[in-house]
């Protein structure tokens, strides 16, 4: 779905002679598709099955609490300019989520659940992206570290599909503008040549504020939050990607 923000942009670029309209709408070709990993390409709640093994009937509760704390903790660390690797943030969030849920988790259980983050399940349309867009640069840009992401891609046979950029390199988490600037520098493209995908509104807002075109992957069909900034595109999943 095209948003009013994108249609306005199309009109401005049309007047400059940088794109054209057809019966299908506004025609623009992006050179790179850049994807957030967690929640966008990979289902972070696929860890629930493993959690259920340890703590029956609490998988959903613990998984949601884990993710909520993970996001909250790295945002706080970014605000106070005290970077720590995403792997540490993720483990802190897991331990606190387990305590909050009132379970007694042994160290080997925590280690097993952390390993699950290297085996998350990709959404079903992810495996076909390389085949669908053979001439397009496909890159993951994540707050996760390479040590977390490389095993995840290898486990799912996606190493040859995506390039990999991590916020661990500049030591700045998304949604800080310096994080997106790092990604742009590594790609060597103009902002408008990049389409950034994420299921996370905070990530889309950060990328849009920096100047990227954005695609909000709204898998749960939620209302876009009132953040004073809209995504360029709104998608139900990754089956209908703008070209």
UniProtKB/TrEMBL annotation:
SUPFAM superfamilies referenced in this protein's UniProt entry, alphabetically: HAD-like
Keywords: Hydrolase
UniProt entry tagged with the keyword Hydrolase: yes
Domain of life: Bacteria
Keyword Acyltransferase attributed: no
One Pfam family matching this protein: Hydrolase
GO molecular function annotation: hydrolase activity, acting on acid halide bonds, in C-halide compounds
InterPro entries for this protein: 2-HAD, HAD-like_sf, HAD-SF_hydro_IA, HAD_sf, PGP-like_dom2, S-2-haloacid_dehalogenase
Coiled coil: none
Family: Belongs to the HAD-like hydrolase superfamily. S-2-haloalkanoic acid dehalogenase family.
NCBIfam families: HAD-SF-IA-v2 (TIGR01493), HAD-SF-IA-v3 (TIGR01509), HAD_type_II (TIGR01428)
Name this polypeptide is given: Haloacid dehalogenase type II
Organism: Halobacillus salinus
